[in-house]
């Protein structure tokens, strides 16, 4: 940029201190806000540019979107020769391009980062804003692990793409999210070379002779099947999710914790040194464990929770004031700054090497679901799991009301009328039941209340649940062969790593799920149940369940020959805080305790489930 040097003051307020990047007609600098005494990031471009007015308008509209994952626009304005957009700066942040410069990212961290990015873009889309220039330089991971997306709407306006239709812009942003996922998994950009101009160490993925790009699983070990399928379908067959919101839903749920593991590269030989083997460890860090004063709120969301927040937060608060608003956010530093030495680039895979991986529905090894800060060996992961292919029986969730469109599209007029009609029927039915109930009050006043020795008190629900201590004939204990967490269809999911603590006979230990921002299970009510494998078909007489301390349990209990909810429902518990006993006359080889809602984990704002002990008698 002509006339822009260190010490230049823009808007009689922002003194340029350090250049971040420079391109024809555009420059990014760090600057000091002399009015508020803070550091900011500022994008400078010619005020006479044909796109200047559109860029300034986009910046002002982007300032009205309240989402922690979008870098805040603080000010926008013009001098005689230059226009500028001022954003918050971030200390210790690294762009996605920096994070994958030397080694591909761990698949679960890639899932988390791209899921948060897609959720942020969905929040912007619902306010009529799009990115249109999304690349690894625009996604930042902050020091506490939270994600920030820069230059929403502004970058597209400066590139002259603000006249693209909303449908096309939405599709481009969704496709860019999938490209980011591929880059995070492999360290290569699957798009055009000009899109990553100036990003050191990032190469363009080459197409094979058949015109297709190698899938992530062909480049790096341990890629979950759902991530591999998303990249293959989008990049090679142009079957991209329609919106960033759909990208987020397909990636969900992701970890609420930052995974600080490096990506796992393929090994081309068996002569790895002991030192190399020692490097095959990773650490999971809880978001809530970061120190106070690190700035942004907790890391990540789990699944649809982040997406749900994206659609409501911005509309509720309205536009933020720009230059005249005092701001006390923590100042930051150059996002593109140098970083510490990282591990080497993953070696290419040997031709005869077998993929490790996962037997879980969504493709994540269960070690990543630990509830505490823990260290694991990736070699143990290889021995424990074999690779599974994409599950063709998996279907997207049905729309909540028949006739509604899928995705995040607004319902049409016919669908709205149908929804109102259904609601009206429910209201009429409730009124009828209320009238009948009022007429029946006092009708059987002289009839003694029926006793129910199997009913629960203070936290136990109907259908055979009773507090421990109810009179019942003792049965023979059944040894549980194994235990895991499954979904409604009985397919194993995450949260299984500590399941052994729920069947070890010790009530002082407990299985605990991951932390979720929304309940249940991050907004997926059909997601989680505790499945106990009894080994053989057994006449189950009773099931005793002890909830985790301080965490009420609400669940339905099933007995059948398969895990999940396909068996016979034998009872339920509701807000139980003490040991409950479920009586049963059913026969099966599995007992499933399907958790229908979750409670706040003690001392946090996240939802969680916990079970101290489960025992079965025949």
From TrEMBL:
The chain crosses the membrane at residues 418-438. Residues 278-297 have a biased composition (Basic and acidic residues). Keywords: Membrane, Transmembrane, Transmembrane helix. Residues 338-351, 449-475 have a biased composition (Low complexity). It comes from Dermacoccus abyssi. This is Protein kinase domain-containing protein. InterPro entries: Galactose-bd-like_sf, Kinase-like_dom_sf. SUPFAM superfamilies: Galactose-binding domain-like, Protein kinase-like (PK-like). The keyword Transport does not apply. Residues 251-298, 311-359, 448-488 are annotated as: Disordered.
